[in-house]
Amino acid sequence: MFIHTLPRAMIHGPHLDVGVRHAFHIARVGIREGLCALSGHDYLLKTAGNRMFLQCPDCGRETPGWRVGRTREIAR
Questions:
Q1: Rounded to whole angstroms, what are the CA distances from 57 to 22, 63, 64?
Q2: Mind listing the pLDDT tens digit for each residue in 7-44?
Q3: Which segments of the chain are extended strands (E)?
Q4: Measured at the alpha carbon of residue 52, what is the angle toward residues 51 and 58, in degrees to the nearest 5?
Q5: How far apart are CA 57 and CA 48, in angstroms?
Q6: Among 2, 42, 64, 69, fewest CB within 10 Å belongs to which?
Q7: Max Cα separation, the chain?
Q8: Cα distance between residue 22 and residue 58, in whole Å
């Protein structure tokens, strides 16, 4: 006879085990990114602080982007 000593994770409600929640999140992100990779990302231009970048609204993938703001004058 096998005695199960580990606590059982609930699959619903606010008491969902943190490890199980993390695993579902990783799976969900992977599926979204996989679908985007097959069909292509639909990038939108976004800005945050002094950074401008492209972001896919479906999976959240971001490009490295560009720094914006003051430019230095080139010495002649």
A1: 21, 12, 16
A2: 555 455 555 677 888 888 888 888 887 888 788 888 89
A3: 44-48, 51-55, 66-67
A4: 120
A5: 15
A6: 2
A7: 85
A8: 19
